[in-house]
């Protein structure tokens, strides 16, 4: 049964949580657009594509926005309660801190469960769609836009220069068009004026030119017998294909083999298959080197039964080989060693690549849980921190939230990088932030339960005042001792 105290705390938490979640999501989405601004600007994207991209990016950043929202909203909630002396009233009634943290802890556990389900079931699909859409946008050519006095070469096979464009943006003057002919010389069109327009379906660009010349040179390459053709015209129509400017639709299946596109169940199956595949490397190494190491077939259990002749005393190996075949033996040995080295290097490279793929799968498998655990960890820091600082609003809580979230983000990034490069194990790397921040959360909870003055500047002022008095007293005693000695 939910008591009035639980209802009070949950109501005080819901508003700041949704507000901070939307703010955090907005900041993360804007970070993505700032990162890819050069690939998005000037592509002529329609409004539907833009909103679809925003939706995919927002969904992709939900697991990262939730921990930040929980951290900031928990600091704000308990800070507001402390600032209005509601925490003092609750504690004076004999209710411990852990008791009135309990309803929000249960809510946080529920949110972390939702975050896990979202990361496991929604994020792989969003990753797939986002990567395909991002690829289509990046490879799309910039929107068609010919400016005055500049050479425009974005249309395949053509270079266009327009001297002047009238206000209607269709009437053009002093037109020069170079057309790629894959011959001795490119074709060239020169016209005094004309009309430039695109067809209604945006597939073709039409030039209706007036009063100009068309130049062309025909003939075989590396030959002096060529024909130069000059054609004058009063009106001339030139049509260019604009299909390369349309945004293509890449199939989602192109990106489906990335570990980021898989759920926990799919990752588990893939990891099992990859680990079983490592057994083939030992057999492959034995099979590909045995053909060149002919002596290896004698290394069996019957080798001990062979009567070995007494060793010949020689200063070095060359002394055992006749001069007539020494060069052949050396060349054959070098050739076989080279082949064995090449095969072993190739097998080693394949093994390292497979290991890297396996590490990526394990990293993504752990990521499904670490971000959900991060929600609980940051709440464990935010709730006692808010009750200690006893400041509401967006001032002091925002400062502390940014500090701890930056620490959380840096530890996550460093741990993932260490795990990818094999500096640490996958578990240590991916759970590094949790292992560091959980003791901090427990420490803050202990301090909050004992009404510690951890962030009270007056407490530090009094402490340093006592230290200064002790130092001053010590100096006075030293001075007295020196005076007495004299």
UniProtKB/TrEMBL annotation:
<dbReference type="Pfam" id="PF03739">
    <property type="entry name" value="LptF_LptG"/>
</dbReference>
<keyword id="KW-0472">Membrane</keyword>
<feature type="transmembrane region" description="Helical">
    <location>
        <begin position="393"/>
        <end position="411"/>
    </location>
</feature>
<feature type="transmembrane region" description="Helical">
    <location>
        <begin position="369"/>
        <end position="386"/>
    </location>
</feature>
<feature type="transmembrane region" description="Helical">
    <location>
        <begin position="12"/>
        <end position="34"/>
    </location>
</feature>
<dbReference type="InterPro" id="IPR005495">
    <property type="entry name" value="LptG/LptF_permease"/>
</dbReference>
<feature type="transmembrane region" description="Helical">
    <location>
        <begin position="100"/>
        <end position="118"/>
    </location>
</feature>
<protein>
    <submittedName>
        <fullName>Membrane protein</fullName>
    </submittedName>
</protein>
<dbReference type="GO" id="GO:0043190">
    <property type="term" value="C:ATP-binding cassette (ABC) transporter complex"/>
</dbReference>
<keyword id="KW-1133">Transmembrane helix</keyword>
<keyword id="KW-0812">Transmembrane</keyword>
<keyword id="KW-1003">Cell membrane</keyword>
<feature type="transmembrane region" description="Helical">
    <location>
        <begin position="54"/>
        <end position="79"/>
    </location>
</feature>
<dbReference type="GO" id="GO:0015920">
    <property type="term" value="P:lipopolysaccharide transport"/>
</dbReference>
<feature type="transmembrane region" description="Helical">
    <location>
        <begin position="423"/>
        <end position="444"/>
    </location>
</feature>
């Amino acid at each position: 049964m939910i008591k009035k105290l639980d209802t009070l705390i949950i109501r005080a938490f819901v508003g700041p949580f949704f507000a901070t979640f939307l703010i955090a999501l907005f900041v993360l989405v804007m970070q993505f657009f700032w990162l890819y601004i050069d690939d998005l600007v000037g592509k002529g994207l329609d409004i539907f594509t833009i909103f679809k991209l925003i939706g995919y990016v927002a969904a992709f950043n939900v697991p990262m926005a939730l921990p930040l929202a929980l951290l900031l909203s928990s600091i704000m909630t308990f800070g507001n309660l402390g600032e209005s002396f509601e925490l003092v009233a609750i504690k004076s009634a004999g209710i411990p801190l852990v008791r009135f943290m309990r309803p929000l802890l249960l809510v946080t556990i529920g949110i972390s469960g939702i975050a896990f389900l979202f990361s496991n079931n929604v994020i792989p699909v969003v990753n797939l769609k986002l990567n395909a859409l991002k690829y289509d946008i990046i490879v799309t050519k910039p929107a068609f836009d010919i400016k005055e006095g500049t050479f425009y070469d974005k249309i395949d096979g053509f270079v266009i220069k327009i001297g002047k464009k009238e206000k209607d943006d269709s009437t053009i003057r002093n037109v020069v068009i170079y057309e790629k002919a894959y011959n001795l010389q490119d074709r060239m069109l020169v016209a005094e004026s004309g009309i430039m327009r695109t067809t209604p379906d945006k597939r073709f660009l039409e030039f209706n030119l007036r009063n100009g010349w068309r130049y062309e040179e025909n003939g075989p390459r590396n030959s002096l017998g060529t024909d130069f053709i000059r054609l004058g015209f009063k009106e001339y129509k030139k049509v260019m294909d604009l299909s390369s400017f349309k945004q293509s639709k890449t199939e989602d299946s192109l990106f489906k083999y990335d570990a980021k596109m898989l759920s926990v169940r799919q990752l588990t199956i893939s990891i099992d298959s990859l680990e079983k595949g490592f057994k083939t490397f030992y057999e492959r190494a034995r099979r590909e080197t045995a053909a060149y190491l002919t002596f290896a077939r004698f290394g069996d259990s019957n080798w001990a039964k062979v009567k070995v002749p007494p060793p010949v005393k020689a200063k070095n190996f060359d002394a055992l080989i006749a001069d007539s075949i020494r060069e052949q033996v050396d060349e054959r040995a070098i050739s076989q060693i080279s082949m064995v080295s090449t095969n072993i290097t190739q097998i080693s490279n394949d093994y390292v690549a497979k290991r890297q793929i396996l590490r990526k799968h394990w990293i993504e498998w752990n990521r499904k849980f670490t971000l959900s655990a991060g929600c609980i960890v940051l709440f464990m820091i935010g709730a006692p921190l808010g009750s200690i600082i006893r400041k509401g609003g967006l001032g002091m809580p925002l400062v502390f939230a940014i500090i701890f979230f930056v620490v959380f983000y840096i530890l996550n990034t460093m741990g993932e990088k260490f795990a990818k490069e094999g500096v640490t194990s996958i578990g240590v790397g991916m759970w590094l932030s949790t292992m560091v921040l959980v003791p901090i959360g427990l420490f803050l909870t202990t301090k909050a339960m004992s009404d510690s003055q951890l962030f009270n500047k007056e407490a530090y002022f009094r402490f340093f005042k006592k230290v200064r008095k002790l130092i001053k007293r010590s100096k006075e005693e030293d001075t007295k001792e020196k005076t007495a000695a004299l």
